[in-house]
Specification:
This protein has 191 residues and is an alpha+beta fold. 17% of the residues lie in helices and 43% in strands.
Length: 191
């Protein structure tokens, strides 16, 4: 995974009123949990923007005062109307304890079912993976070349090297759906 560097400032005041005052200054209240001590801190909206609005899963190198920690984003909370990020929870990672994160899925290849007139549909955008953070890939790349018309690719058929897939095994990752043209072609071939 790619590393993203982020600087934070420890905070002393807690609660709704303190957090509201921080947000007015374009600061985002944050927490970090995990291996060591739990910390509460703030980051600027401008510094966190690339972390918040990226489709990739990133390892964050946090510098909070004199403390340096490696973490992944556990949860982000957004304002329901404006869409502005107003809280981030981080999970501290190390090379001994596995962590569960969601990784984007990328499809490669030209499916056989598409050649037959079907339409490839990506049903799941992210896959939940568990492993040591250094072993987790940036993306899960799945080859769909052998996926025929009307066929489905399930989570149970996907494997990631040195990691465990934690998503529901019966969930559909991708499928080739029949279109009107492909259904008409099949009925003509049957006659």
């Amino acid at each position: 995974m790619k590393t993203f560097e982020l600087n934070g400032t420890l905070r002393n005041e807690y609660g709704k009123k303190a957090n509201k005052a921080l947000r007015k200054q374009n600061l985002i209240p944050c927490n970090i949990y995990g291996c060591g001590e739990n910390l509460t801190f703030t980051v600027t909206d401008a510094d966190a923007r690339k972390l918040i609005y990226t489709p990739d899963t990133l390892v964050v190198a946090l510098t909070i005062g004199e403390t340096k920690k490696m973490a992944v984003v556990k949860e982000m909370q957004f304002h329901p109307v404006s869409g502005v990020c107003f809280h981030i929870d981080f999970l501290e990672v190390n090379d001994k304890k596995p962590v569960t994160v969601e990784i984007p899925i990328s499809l490669t290849g030209h499916a056989e079912g598409v050649k037959a007139g079907g339409k490839l549909s990506l049903e799941m955008r992210k896959l939940k993976i568990n492993g040591i953070y250094t072993n987790i890939p940036e993306r899960v790349i799945i080859d769909v070349t052998n996926l025929g018309l009307g066929k489905k690719l399930f989570v149970s058929e996907v494997s990631v090297e040195n990691c465990t897939v934690k998503s529901v095994k019966e969930a559909i990752v991708a499928q080739v759906k029949a279109t009107r043209n492909s259904a008409a072609a099949e009925s003509e071939a049957a006659e």
